[in-house]
Amino acid sequence: MTNILLINPNTTKSITDLVLRTAKGFASKGTRLRALTGSFGPRYIASRAAYAIASHAALDAYANDRGPKDAVVLACFGDPGLAALKEVSPVPVVGMADASILQACAMGNRFSIVTGGERWKSMLEEFVAGHGLTSRLASVRTVAPTGADIARNPKAAMELLAKGCSACVEEDGADVVILGGAGLAGLAAKLKPMVDAPLLDGVACAISMAEGLALQQPAKARNGALAKPGAVDSIKLSKGLSKLLQSP
User: Could you list the residue range(s) of the whole structural domain that residue 136 is in?
Assistant: First the structure.
């Protein structure tokens, strides 16, 4: 049995439920999934400020969890706190955006990302640049409704999303299109007949990568940028996070 923990770093439980439900549809038979919702912070992440707070919330959720886990999935497409989680976790940590862009590169020469919320365009361009993959990025296109809006009423956004995905292929030259955002989980399958290129679901990409890494049981790095950090004292953090920093 492979145990995977999903962490939604925003504070909207309905998004967590959507991601967990979608993940169960893609997970292998021998995989057990659990999901946590951020205990503080924004209801939805649509700005750099909210992203910074969500990074703390993701780390806090991980630090206070006591359940079994062979891998962790950060269930937010921008992957807030991903590097920090990789630094402290003894098991593999996979981000939705990280997994999606890597799998998109395996499928085609250039990829695009379609998501909800206009501010995500520059944020995701910066994210891809941080991975050294700007030359592989055809475009980032956003639709006006946020991912939270789309999760509440996905039918209302289907036409906008289909047009955005098609424009990525026909105008931007994308070979593969990623449907990004936890609030858009599960919509790639519904949009598939409307778009003339492969569509990737961020949740599906993260689950498949997490399962593969968990099966390999890789050792925790003992040296390098993501090796276990040194202990540090802290104040006014949660009990679990304070303990994690004292003995990571």
Answer: 97-202
